[in-house]
């Protein structure tokens, strides 16, 4: 069975991680608030980073 994303190492092919823009941070925070969390978790951040 596959591991959850937070237990996997970052693939080297992705290169150096980039910071989230303020717009993407706001999107992650909105997703967390909609889910009833006070701040975004890693999954919210990943989802916000993938959005275009």
Please describe the topology of this protein.
Elements: H1 22-34, H2 42-50
Rg measurement, Å: 12 Å
Main beta sheet strand tally, sense and closure: none
Q: Assign a percent range to the helix content.
A: 40-55%
For the secondary structure, the number of strands is 0
Low-pLDDT residue intervals, each spanning 5 or more residues: none
Which class do the helix and strand fractions yield? mainly alpha
Q: Kindly, what is the distance between the CA atoms of the first and last residues, rounded to a whole number of angstroms? A: 30 Å
List the total number of helices: 2
User: Which geometry do the CA atoms define?
Assistant: flat
Can you describe this structure?
The protein is mostly helical and 52 residues long. The chain starts with 21 loop residues before the first helix and ends with a helix. It has a domain of 35 residues. The protein is built from 2 helices and no strands.
Pick out its properties.
52 residues; 2 helices; mainly alpha; single chain
What is the gist of this entry?
The protein has 52 residues and is mainly α.
